[in-house]
Amino acid sequence: MRIAAPLIAAAAMLATSFLIFAFLGKDPLNALEVFFIEPLNSLYGWGELVLKATPLALCGLGLALGFSANVWNIGAEGQLTLGAICGGGVALYWGNLLGPLALPASLLAGIAGGAAWAAIPAYLRTRFNTSEILVSLMLVYIAQLLLTYLLHGVWRDPEGFNFPQSRAFDERILLPLLYDGQRANLAFPMMLALAAASWVFSSRLFAGYYLGHLSADLAHPAPVLSGACLWVSRSVLEEVGSFDEQFFLYAEDIDLSYRIEQAGYTNYYYPGTTIVHFKGESTTKDIGYVRQFYRAMSQFRRKHFGRGMPAFFSWAKILERLPGVPVSTRVRPGTRPSAGSG
């Protein structure tokens, strides 16, 4: 379905467009040619396609990572707008002063601005349990109004014949063009590199715990099984032992799964049953939660791999030692369970 779904959507779009143009008394084939064929008849047309597709693809990459974690961020347009405001502000006010550092400074400011705008619904969701869908959507309109205010006010080009536009950026702040005669620039290969990195991050390199690159409808070997629904034969449990009580709240299922695999057995994910699991609803998401989680990860590492720790994972040790209130447990009233497979 990962391949079939977009193909079905494209076919449905073409069929719907065909019917709409036919009802309007227009030639559907000519209309589709104008939309899909003529823009690609020249190098300039390809450049415009690449130029306009690049920011949309970058937004899609960020959203895809959030969606894989069940974070429904639908405010990418607002985050893109705030990133443009922050990056453009650096370019307008400090571009000449920063010299060769102006371009990377503008890029970093754009990244920081978009991330800060996305952090607003994230904070409200974790602190007050608000809907990230509604908050991120409403922030789109606020970002657009802020940009409109700037372009009609303090940022308006005094030599722009009263058009709502800013002054042109210095040439040193513009990304290099890919080819002469079109406007596509270095942002396109940068997007392709980020797409490749995102694929590696979300599907292979860091998916060992959730195995998100595998189909949820098929059985697969799974090195780590979730303690929410774990079937183990009695003989295996008697051989490897049950849950280790040194793990207070987290990693006990990882520890048991690892010991089962070390004993020569294979763990499997089985999609043939469904359970109801209140995932994360018994824990307040505060600094105590973060500290307790990484403490459990450190306990697992020390138990099975000794006390030596690669420098790459030193941040986990820092989080483990952060001061904070011990993890409190409570169930929020009015919450709904989410369904999960065994």
Describe this protein with a few key phrases:
single chain; 342 residues; mainly alpha; 3 domains; two-stranded antiparallel ribbon; two-stranded antiparallel sheet; 11 helices; globular; disordered C terminus
Give an overview of the whole structure.
Helix content is 55%, strand content 4%. With 342 residues, the chain is mainly alpha-helical. The protein folds into three domains: 1-36, no CATH class; 44-205, no CATH class; 220-341, no CATH class. The strands form two sheets. Strands 1-2 form a two-stranded antiparallel ribbon. A two-stranded antiparallel ribbon has the order 3-4. Helix 1 (4-23) packs across helix 2 (28-36) and helix 10 (287-305) packs across helix 11 (314-320). The longest helix has 27 residues, at 102-128. The radius of gyration is 26 Å and the shape is globular. The protein starts with a helix and ends with a strand.
Tally of helical segments: 11
Order of helices and strands: HHHHHHHEHHEEHHE
Strand content: under 5%
Tell me the major beta sheet. Answer: 2 strands, antiparallel
**What gyration radius follows from the Cα positions, in whole Å?**
26 Å
Runs in which pLDDT lies below 50 for 5 or more consecutive residues are 311-342
Any idea what the shape is?
Answer: globular
Lateral arrangement of strands in the main beta sheet: 1-2
Mean pLDDT: 83
Helix content: 55-70%
Distance separating the two termini: 21 Å
Quaternary state reads: single chain
